[in-house]
Design brief:
single chain, 375 residues, alpha/beta, Aspartate Aminotransferase, domain 2, 2 domains, seven-stranded mixed sheet, 14% strand, binds pyridoxal-5'-phosphate
């Protein structure tokens, strides 16, 4: 079994909580977790549900149907309810896709930088993580050219658009080219679409519309602001339904019943959730220009999500120490780039900004004053 590393964001998060418990005012930019309150109709559904017996091991047929319908309406993709598997967030969906989709020893490609769990889950399950170095020149995203350079061909490819930690989107033309290449060479795609619907202009294509063989990972943790409810889903290609079903029922059983009910009702509250997009867009503008003005470099303008991934080499080259010290001195919690990139990440910091604009302004102000003391 391969060794895997823990999230440094969690280490920072624990330190942040300790400081908060000791009375410090902490601004949490370390996790990508929107914390908006539940819309009233979701609250009502949940309150009503707990007055009745809550279903035990249960799958909401209606939620599976609604999600399948959403693929048709949003992307024009034919996805049946039988292809939708409900999970405790995107994290188990990734485990299911990897463990059902690949044989032991498979080589799975992914962008570096990329979401920390990709390389660690791939390794933890006994596969080989093939990291594709992606720099500012490609907005930290994979492209067909980069894919073609992988030799021998990988068995699988993880695609994330918008991506964590950068928020960058793979343009539709490139997405199609990647899907075609993977079809040609029998490379199974896992597309993590958890930041879909959080984009600032650029179209986000779903792999479900481009490939019948792709797994699609998604959850209610980001756009729907329900990270603590642990509810997500996996779209499973037809040839993998039995394999995923066997794994889901053995490894995880069902998703929490109340969370399934909340998620179904959340889908009826688009206007409420769309309201947050303006706040994220405003925060994005502030962060992007604010960080550049302070001397951070190589920030790819985020096309989506709520992250800015910034080169901090003007201030040192140990991102973990930088983040810890910044937190201790100012109460601003951030994530060191080493979570996302074991090679270059010591030079980068990720700022997560789904908070109020006031908090983002305060965080930038504290960062500015702190950097002055270090100059
Ligand atoms: C790209 C990406 N995929 C998956 C996850 C895990 O999400 P969930 O909370 O739905 O398990 C995250 C969480 O931050 C993420 O950023």
């Amino acid at each position: 079994m391969n060794e895997i590393e823990s999230f440094k964001a969690v280490e920072i998060g624990r330190l942040a909580i300790e400081m908060e418990d000791a009375g410090h005012d902490v601004i949490h930019m370390e996790y990508g977790q929107p914390t908006a309150p539940l819309p009233p109709s979701v609250k009502q559904i949940v309150k009503q549900a707990i007055d009745k017996p809550v279903p035990g091991y249960w799958e909401s047929t209606e939620l599976r149907r609604s999600l399948a319908m959403d693929y048709k309406l949003r992307y024009g993709a034919d996805v049946s309810p039988e292809q939708i598997f409900l999970t405790c967030g995107a994290s188990p969906a990734l485990v299911l896709a990897l463990s059902a989709g690949f044989k032991p020893g498979a080589r799975i490609a992914m962008a570096r930088p990329g979401y920390v769990a990709y390389r660690n889950t791939v390794r933890g399950l006994g596969y080989k993580a093939v990291e594709i170095a992606c720099g500012i020149d490609s907005r930290y995203q994979i492209s067909l050219d980069k894919l073609k350079q992988i030799n021998p061909l990988p068995d699988g490819l993880i695609v994330a658009s918008p991506a964590n930690p950068t928020g960058t989107i793979i343009p539709p033309k490139d997405m199609r080219a990647i899907a075609d290449y993977c079809k040609q060479y029998d490379i199974r795609i896992i597309s993590d679409e958890i930041y879909h619907r959080l984009s600032f202009g650029m179209e986000t294509l779903s792999m479900s519309a481009l490939s019948k063989r792709a797994f699609i990972v998604n959850s209610f943790s980001k756009y729907f602001c329900l990270p603590g409810w642990r509810i997500g889903w996996l779209v499973v290609p037809d040839d993998m339904i039995d394999a995923v079903n066997a794994r889901l029922t053995n490894y995880f059983l069902t998703a929490p019943s109340l969370s399934q009910m909340a998620a179904l009702e959340a889908m009826n509250n688009e206007n409420y959730y769309n309201g947050f997009l303006d706040i994220y867009a405003q925060n994005r503008k502030l962060m992007f220009s604010g960080l550049e003005a302070l001397g951070f470099k190589n920030i790819a303008p985020p096309d989506g999500a709520f992250y800015a991934y910034a080169d901090m080499t003007a201030f040192g080259d140990n991102s973990l120490e930088f983040c810890k010290q910044l937190l201790r001195d100012t109460g601003v919690a951030t994530t060191p780039g080493i979570d996302f990139d074991p090679v270059e990440g010591h030079k980068f910091v990720r700022f997560s900004y789904p908070q109020s604009t006031d908090q983002v302004e305060t965080a930038l102000g504290r960062l500015k004053a702190w950097l002055k003391t270090r100059a």
